[in-house]
Structures are given as structure tokens and as C-alpha cells.
Amino acid sequence: MVNTFARPEQTAFPKILAIVRAALREAIAAPTDRASLDVAGAALVAVAAIAQSEVAHV
User: This protein's superkingdom (predicted)?
Assistant: First the structure.
């Protein structure tokens, strides 16, 4: 599969997609609902950090 971006500045999308996919796999396998939410929260923090660094470069 080849990713084609609408705008060239969308360079972080593959990294964000990888974080989301990994988080979904982890959340499904988590032993409790609370653990699933912790995984999702950590993924959101990671995605926010990437977005913030992308904005800083613009």
C-alpha cells in the first residue's frame, strides 16, 4: 500500500497511524477497562506531541 498525502506537510501521518494501530491492539488485549483507557490516553499524548512538533516546524 502506498500512502499519498493531500499536502506534502503531512509527513507525520504514518507515525501517527502506527501509534493508533498499536494502541488499538494493546487496548483490546488489556486486562481491564481502566488499562485500555490508559493505553488510549498514552497514545493521545504521543499523537499530541507529534502534532505539536509538526506545528513548531511550520
Answer: Bacteria
